[in-house]
Design brief:
It is a single chain. The protein has 796 residues and is mainly β. The chain is 5% helix and 55% strand. It has a 22-stranded antiparallel β-barrel. The protein has a five-stranded mixed β-sheet with strand order 8-15-16-11-12. The chain has a four-stranded antiparallel β-sheet with strand order 3-2-5-6, with no helix packed on it.
């Protein structure tokens, strides 16, 4: 320890700053062919510091640079449109970039550029944007989490402090597809629940992320098995010239990361990051993290990259996370505000998620680019619940709970292994016409075991006991036609087949249009999308009179959704833009109960509870519509600003045919973010940012007190379900970072103050069996209060 602090003191007291490198490659966005002799400029503030041209393999390089914020621009020429990126160069790490440029269809020089924030996917026309690792660090309250960062975008609601569920335009979080390196992945979060896509802590380490895309509707044909949105994430390659290391200690964990070349004679590289939770330290300090239990988790992310001969490349990537928490309520002497558990049982819960994959790519010729991604993944959830009864002994001083009895309530283990492959070919016929076609295939082997007590706790029943496998196949093709640099069309189709339910969606058309004139842009998009149900819901048991198992939902079909989007954008002064969209979505084939009720799978997918489906049929419907506005100033002149607002309606019909609010119909969301940098001498600076979130409250109905008392859980009346709205969600966050550049080492200290006003936002209403009022067996459950999140990071 003494050696560590001695080294740290030497680093802080260094009077010189090592000079670093910004380098990268310029390629064609469709074929990935290197673009030689292309001009690249290095800009600091508004001054062009250096110019260079790419070599025969498309590489460029700027040496001997001082730590600072730079703009790197691949300048447009006779054939390609320009593109620029803003980067932060520190003394601890080099910057490695990749420019994927769009070919111009004009016959003469055109000075035009791909706009900052546009999705890197060339087929996207609406409801999409690119995000970077810098944004996950810059936004206050984002906790370095891509999902929480996305909640700042128009049309996205993430007003749940305990989880990072993504509610896109009033849709269930179940409708969001997560993809890494072209592979559809399982839920990438610690403490994930079967049938959900969110969790309290992400497994994905933002230090490994390359620029990626986020879609909120009418997404291109290559994305399937999703009705709401897509997170398309890529891992960056490690530095293949210099070995670099990073150490971080903070609220979310202690992290170690390393990257560098395997040898000096090749361009092969490695990148790996490991994290272990340190949340227990904050529990000891008395900081409210939403639970009295100690969550324990660890995760690993990596990418190994091997350039091959003949314009080919092979990489291996993966991530994995293990998490456990023991929520013990029975030994508490007074009621607790527990976000992650129920107040009448002890819960022992754990999850494991792993994925290992490979990606082979090859430039076949000047017209064709081949990509083959494959992976093996596993996800596991396991739990044990012990139910207890207790009473308040008024004879104690002070009066406190006394345990009466305890017995086993339920156990379950859900395992899923998935084998995935995704081959695709991108073909460029000419500057105007290109296409991409491919196939994703997933074979899932599952083992679902679950048993629990019946409602009156008189006997155990087996609710799941299913083993087997299923195949999901999704072929697609998509085309892009550029009439000019200002006008292009996209068209494609997607198909989908699921073997276990024999569900088929033969033809799902997707289309888009984008037209620009001057500073203005008009865009249109539409498409049909489908999604399978959470796999475990197909295998819920019923037992007939002979004792035979019946999977009464085994034949559920896909949920379908049609998207219609129109957008308008305008470039503003000072690297700023305005963007607005209106949309309408219609959903059908939604599973609802056979008996008349308000239940619909459209409301499932968030929180920490599975759902136990009755007999279901695909006769439910729903619809969402709204308008969104974004005003954004990208980081420039030491300042950035983002304002997003959404007005929307989200409704559905269950099997009783009554039109109701969905669980996610908050009606409005407003986000305001801003930040600026202040230099503190030649070697250090402060970055200060703030965020305000205001969103409509959660939906509830009328509680059935008698049924709730009988079942020891909250039961809602069908009548007036979701017609009451809790008070608005409001939160203020503040973040400050200090960056110090020493010789070949950078130090960063960050403090993210979440909910600085300590507002008691309502998470929901929970059943309270020990209520002193027998006529009111519920109580409001509040979200996290004030939460300070800090970290110290050193890069060298």
């Amino acid at each position: 320890m003494k050696v560590f602090f001695t080294c740290l003191l030497i680093c802080l007291c260094s009077t010189s700053i090592a000079q670093r490198v910004i380098r990268g490659q310029v390629v064609d966005e469709v074929t990935q062919m290197p673009i030689p002799s292309f001009v690249v400029k290095l800009i600091e503030d508004t001054t062009v510091l250096k110019r260079t041209v790419t070599d025969l393999d498309g590489y460029f390089r700027f040496n001997d640079l001082q730590p600072s914020k730079y703009t790197v621009e691949a300048q447009g020429g006779d054939f390609y449109r320009s593109q620029w990126k803003v980067v932060e160069l520190t003394s601890g790490k080099d910057i490695i970039l990749k420019f994927e440029l769009e070919e111009s269809v004009m016959e003469e020089v055109v000075i035009s550029a791909k706009k900052k924030g546009e999705a890197s996917n060339e087929m996207a026309t609406v409801s999409s944007r690119e995000f970077s690792v810098e944004e996950t660090n810059r936004y206050a309250g984002s906790r370095g989490d891509p999902a929480r960062m996305a909640s700042n975008y128009a049309g996205v609601n993430g007003s749940d402090d305990s989880r990072n569920d993504i509610v896109v335009r009033g849709n269930s979080p179940l409708g969001v597809l997560w993809r890494v390196e072209d592979i559809n992945i399982p839920n990438p979060n610690h403490f994930s629940i079967a049938g959900s896509q969110g969790g309290p802590v992400t497994i994905l380490n933002n230090k490994l992320l390359a620029n990626s895309d986020f879609f909120t509707g009418a997404f291109p044909a290559e994305f399937g098995n999703s009705t709401a949105g897509v997170f398309d994430i890529n891992f960056r390659n490690g530095n293949n010239e210099e070995r670099e290391y990073s150490f971080q200690f903070g609220f979310l964990g202690t992290e170690l990361a390393a990257e560098g070349p395997f040898s000096d004679s090749s361009r092969a590289s490695y990148l790996v990051a490991y994290r272990y939770s340190t949340v227990s330290l904050f529990s000891l300090l008395g900081i409210n993290i939403g639970t009295d239990a100690t969550p324990v988790y660890q995760d690993l992310n990596f990418k190994l990259n091997f350039p091959l001969k003949n314009n080919a490349n092979l990489s291996f990537f993966g991530f994995g996370g293990a998490s456990d928490i023991d929520i013990v309520i029975s030994d508490q002497t007074e009621p607790s505000e527990e976000l992650y558990g129920e107040n009448d049982r002890d819960q022992y819960f754990g999850t494991h998620t792993y994925l290992v994959g490979s990606k082979y790519s090859k430039i076949l010729n000047e017209k064709n680019y081949l990509n083959i991604s494959s992976a093996v993944s596993k996800e596991n959830q396991h739990t044990r619940h012990n139910f207890f009864e207790r009473h308040i002994d008024s004879g104690l001083n002070p009066p406190s709970f006394v345990l009466d009895t305890m017995y086993r309530l339920q156990d379950y283990v859900f395992d899923q292994w998935k084998f995935s492959i995704h081959p695709s070919i991108s073909r460029k016929f000419n500057a105007k016409f290109s296409m991409k076609y491919g196939l994703t295939a997933d074979y899932t082997v599952f083992n679902f075991i679950d048993s629990g007590l019946v409602a009156d706790h008189s006997k155990f029943i087996t609710r799941w006991d299913a083993q087997g496998g299923t195949v999901l196949i999704q072929p697609y093709a998509q085309w892009k036609y550029k009439k000019s640099d200002n006008l292009f069309f996209t068209y494609g189709f997607h198909s989908q087949y699921l073997s276990n339910s024999n569900s088929i969606s033969w033809f799902e058309p997707r289309a888009g249009l984008s037209y620009s004139k001057g500073k203005n842009n008009i865009s249109l998009g539409t498409g049909v999308h489908s999604q399978m149900q959470p796999l475990y819901t197909y295998y819920y048991n019923l037992v007939d009179s002979a004792g035979n198992k019946i999977y009464h939902n085994a034949n559920m079909d896909f949920t379908k959704s049609a998207h219609f989007v129109a957008g308008y954008g305008r470039a503003l002064k000072g690297k700023a833009r305005l963007k607005s969209e209106v949309y309408y979505q219609y959903l059908w084939n939604v599973p609802v109960e056979v008996r008349p009720s308000s239940f619909s799978l459209i409301n499932q997918g968030s929180g920490f509870a599975r759902f136990f489906p009755d007999s279901l049929q695909n006769t439910g419907t729903g619809y969402n519509y709204g308008i969104e506005l974004t005003i954004e100033k990208f980081f420039d002149n030491n300042f950035f600003f983002l304002a997003t607002g959404s007005l929307y309606e989200s409704r559905y019909k269950g099997s009783d045919g009554v039109d109701r609010n969905t669980d996610y119909n908050g009606n409005y969301t407003l986000n305001l973010l801003s930040g600026f940098e202040v230099k503190a001498g030649e070697k250090s600076k402060f970055t200060i940012s703030g965020k305000m979130t205001w969103a409509g409250g959660k939906r509830i109905g009328v509680v059935n007190d008698s049924a709730s008392a009988a079942l020891n859980e909250l039961i809602w009346e069908d009548e007036n379900y979701n017609e009451t709205q809790l008070r608005d969600y409001f939160r203020l966050d503040f973040k400050v970072n200090w960056l110090y550049n020493a010789k070949r080492v950078s130090h960063e200290i960050g403090l993210d103050l979440v909910n600085i006003t300590g507002r008691e936002n309502i998470l929901g209403v929970t059943y309270f069996r020990e209520s002193p009022d027998p006529n009111n067996l519920t109580r409001e459950q509040y979200q996290l209060g004030f939460l300070p999140i800090f970290y110290y990071r050193i890069d060298f």
